[in-house]
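Q: Hand in one record:
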Amino acid sequence: MRRLSIQKLEPRIENRVWGKEIFLVENKSYVGKRLEMNAGTAGGLQVHVEKEETFYLLSGQALVDYDDGYGNLVRHEMVPGEIFHIPTNATHRVTAVVDCVFFEWSLPIRNDRVRVETEYGQPVPTDKLELGTTWEEDLLGILRRKK
């Protein structure tokens, strides 16, 4: 029986308004990334329709806003060594207080972010946070993939 060989990978870098996503591995089972987030930047308040993710703060200090399960936004001051798991449909946002380096592992699902600022009485930022979605809500409030 022939065995598979290992594979040397090259990282793929995507620049974002908040910093960089460095894709370390992408396959049909999972994605592993190094996220370099610039001080004072934030992602949008969002949920993922299908994607689950886990992130680990290697360096820096960040604020993690999330729904406590009862419709209330709470804030956690994240320090190096802490890990958060974000299940599907969990409201979250990360803000870098200082330059941060995260490692993130997730399901290999892209562009299923849904912005939820208005659900929490917050204005939707007008700057481009690159959080477009391939999902939309139908008349019954059901999220469906855009055609």
